[in-house]
Amino acid sequence: MRYLTILLFTLLLASAGYAQKTAWLIVPGKSIGQIKLEAPAQSLAVLGKPDGGDAAMMKAWRIWYSRKKDKTIDSLHLLAVFTAMRTQDTQYVKQIRVNSPRFRTVKGVGAGSSMLAIRKAYPDARLVQTYLSANKARRIAVYEDTKAGIAFETSNTRSKRPVCSMVVIFDPGESAAGYLDFHVGFDMMEPAEK
Q: In the chain, which ranges are continuous DSSP H helix?
């Protein structure tokens, strides 16, 4: 009986450790944390009421911001989920975006990682699009590994050492760029540099 108790306790600890580890895990083409691609939009209820978003034409963005110690919104860290109708009455998760540096892939990269580290971890990531703000003061470059279903955005493309500002997960074979209307004020687009 003693050995069974020890075994159960060990399994419980291992299971809790795994759950904690996966809570911050980015899995290309599959999930960010507990949010999974192709899951029904109802599964997002575990996150609580969204802090913002937009919906039209049977598609929706839902945005959750982290909170500061005093419970006010920390708009610097967000999780954004794009859903679209696939059946007549249900929306499904099509894209997940996160800019918190706590979320990482098993290869150890995420928001805050240098593009050099990201290119080592994901050598198939290619520059697919550069977006320019309406006043031309800010740029967003999107590096995408379409086969894996992951994209990395940088918002400081003029730097010699660009850093990832957002990680995007989408269905492998598709593109993250198809839903970039997420960025307010980036309505003028430049073609990707070759």
A: 2-22, 115-121
